[in-house]
Structure formats: structure tokens, C-alpha cells
Amino acid sequence: xxxxxxxxxxxxxxxxxxxxxxxxxxxxxxxxxxxxxxxxxxxxxxxxxxxxxxxxxxxxxxxxxxxxxxxxxxxxxxxxxxxxxxxxxxxxxxxxxxxxxxxxxxxxxxxxxxxxxxxxxxxx
Length: 124
Prior knowledge:
By secondary structure, the protein is an all-beta fold. The protein is 0% helix and 51% strand.
């Protein structure tokens, strides 16, 4: 069992930035693939991006490409989602999730463990 903890959500103005963190309680994320998803009110959970730890390979949804960056901290074993040029449509609860690096991708089914989510609100 992997318990994930997200932090860093909050309120930002359009055009601003926020950085979300994802850490695993009692272990590290170094052997996993880590994905970020988000869910806005009344909408389905959607893929944001993922990172495969070993190679540091990242992949993003078109809606965030060029604005969001996923990175990893080898020392802390944590993963970050840097969100720049935020838009009101980025408002959602953001979740990190982990799974085997070979299985993770854009689909929810590729992930085994999920965090509780952190709220991001972007005002216009």
C-alpha cells in the first residue's frame, strides 16, 4: 500500500503560477511512474501528465503542454507539478497517482494508488 500526499494547491490569478507536490508516506516514489490528473466540478477526471522516474521521461496533455512541467527530486523522492500561465479552466482538484512505470499512461486504469487531491482555483 502506498499512501500519497499532495500539497501546494490554493488560489492563483490567471497568468500566475502554483507548484504542487506529491510525496509517498513511508516510502519514496523512485521506483514508480507518477501521473497527475485533475477533476473539475461536474466533469470526469482527466489526464494532465506523467513522469517515469528512471529515465525522467515526461508526457503531457495538450491542454497543459508548454505551461505545466513535471519534475522529480531524487534526494526527497518526491514529484512536482509546476503550473505556469494558469487559466481559469485549470481550476480543479488535482491528484497524483502512481503505478508501474511500464503501465502508466494517460488512462486512469494504469495507476494503482491515488492521493486525496488538492484544490487549485484560478481566478480571472
